[in-house]
Amino acid sequence: MRVYVPVTVTMLRSLVDTGELRAISGTAFALTPMLRESYASGSTDELEYAAMLEAARASLRLLAAEWAEDQKTPARRGVVAADVEDVRLRPDLDAAVVRLPGPVTYAQVAAVHLDDPAAEDAVRTAAEVVDAADLGDDDAEFQIGEAEDHELAWYAPQELPFLLELMEP
After folding, report:
1. Residue 126 pLDDT > 90, yes or no?
2. Using an 8 Å Cβ cutoff, are 112 and 12 in contact?
3. pLDDT category, 47, cuts 50, 70, 90?
4. I need a surface site. Which of 76, 106, 148, 165 has the fewest CB within 10 A?
């Protein structure tokens, strides 16, 4: 199953260094039967994109948590698309949520999606208000939308080490 794992740049560096990605609480997103049923129409590609956007929003939460420890973490949403077997559906959490059986290996990574530098201001603001948006704050939801207006760039797995090297100060 193609899964979409929310990540930060710090997590991507760990993937390159160790060859494994450990999703927080084993949580990822995918085109699940429940997600498909929640849409009146849409191709598989469109619905997989919806799952990826859910992962990108979850990446905002990861960024907010990292900033509590290190303000230098780049303000970029990240999503790793990977092919993983034996995922467990978690409709009790959300329509697109799945639980991974363990770490994702570099060999399982199909693509990496990451914001470009132009999105950083919007992403920083969105990460600061993501909890308020979840609670129904319209202004916060608008800020999330500002970040989501930025498309995530696509990178092949073999490009990741070079991309991260270019991002170093």
Report:
1. yes
2. yes
3. very high
4. 165
Residue 62 sits at the vertex; the CA angle it makes with 57 and 67, to the nearest 5 degrees, is 125
- Residues 6 or more apart whose Cβ sits within 8 Å of residue 98: 1, 3, 27, 28, 29, 30, 32, 87, 88, 89, 90
Tell me how far CA of residue 14 lies from CA of 17, 60, 143, 144, in angstroms. Answer: 5, 18, 29, 27
Q: 3-state class of 19 per DSSP?
A: coil
Please state the separation of Cα 46 from the chain's center in Å.
16
Cα 63 to Cα 22: distance, rounded to the nearest angstrom: 15
Q: How far apart are alpha carbons 51 and 49 in whole angstroms?
A: 5
For the chain, the straight-line distance linking the first and the last C-alpha, in angstroms and rounded, comes to 36
Confidence grade of residue 140 (pLDDT, cut at 50, 70, 90): very high
The answer on pLDDT for 81 being more than 90 is yes
